[in-house]
Design goal:
The structure is a single chain. This protein is of the alpha+beta class and 196 residues long. It has seven helices and nine strands, in the order βααβββββαβαβαβαα. A hairpin with a 5-residue loop joins strand 4 and strand 5. It is elongated, with a radius of gyration of 20 Å. The chain starts with 5 loop residues before the first strand and ends with a helix.
Length: 196
Amino acid sequence: MTATPLRVARRRPTRDLAAAEDAAAAFLTALGVDLDSDSLAETPARMARAYAELLTPREFQLTTFANDEGYDELVLARGIPIRSVCEHHLLPFVGVAHVGYLPGERILGLSKLARVVEMFARDLQVQERLTKQVADWLQEHLQPKGVGVVIEAEHLCMTLRGVRAAGAVTVTSALHGSIRSEPSTRQEFFSLTGVR
């Protein structure tokens, strides 16, 4: 039996790039930046477009396949790049996600694990919520026997300002099903992610 792929898109709020550009110009001017120079004249427009891109996830088709072979071991995509924006300071945080699941009746096209991560990362975020959103979404839509998500990220709001702890990495995890409840499966998941 062939399943129809699910079109996945997060609700896109209305964007007004002209208003964002005006606001960026006002913001920079308020901070004492002279926008009259050739090199800075287009900065407010570039700033508005950059944030619009950072906050807009791409649509994708959720493609799953019947698990005809009865595969029952961990499937893990390790090192998925993450780029998101801290909702407290509007500075980026960057790192990697490790996303795994124990298949149930369906298996997932592997690129879709990265697409789900991107879908939630392209928003104003905190890392803890992002980690949980990815795990919860996969548990709901794939209905596997278990899901595990680990995110390792460096937050520019912590490395460039405030404490200025350059190189500090924050690690978060979210686990469902047997990856959470069975100690050996949990240990295998964390071992495969490389997180100690």
